[in-house]
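Assess this today:

___
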Amino acid sequence: MLKIFRTKKEHKEDFELDMDNMPNHIAIIMDGNGRWAKEQSLPRSMGHKAGMETIRLILKEATRLGIKNLTLYAFSTENWSRPKDEVGAIMNLLVTYLKKELRECHENGVRMNVLGDTSKLPAECQKVLNEAIETTKNNIKINLNFALNYGGRDEIVRAIKLISSDIKNNKISEEEINEKLVEKYLYTKGIPDPDLIIRPSGEQRLSNFLLWQCAYSEFWYSNINWPDFKEVDLKRAIADYQNRDRRFGKVK
């Protein structure tokens, strides 16, 4: 695990990417919005607003680089415990982002998806999310997955309940249970496991993110707060990923 420290002046690229060895799926824990706002003597809501602009930049760069799947951890099941005004600001920003970016995303071949229990989101959020998913459902250039009201443990518990229900209703048998079957009951059904998980802000933990799916993911940490995360940082993470020896528990 390589932890990168970058000053604001360090934007020069000192590496080359192997376009034949790009990660198929990158997942990002978008951390550091609050810290960024505090450093700027701004309300936390302004940090989340600045983070939305970073989403726009990183999505464009990921698309340009040919990344096929990008998952962004936007709001966890634990985030409901934050102050109500902050939660409200995040939800409003989500609505604003989707309304503003949907047309361009659609034109650029972005297919939008949501991981998590959206039934607990505000009605307006659910409406714009459903519209975005429906509008972009046939796009194939890049899959953009927003993890909203998402928790890895919650996802696994949900899968267990669904499997138990299907066994009870004789849709499947206990003998059929294996990893491939379990994957069909996860929010990420049909989505490949992340090759690379990126976490900015200096923290080095998963925070209940993609617990099943990250079994053999590579991790890349940085002290850069999410609003300051730039295209060059994404490329640095990919470059480091490309220099690793992925053995998946085997010996080459």
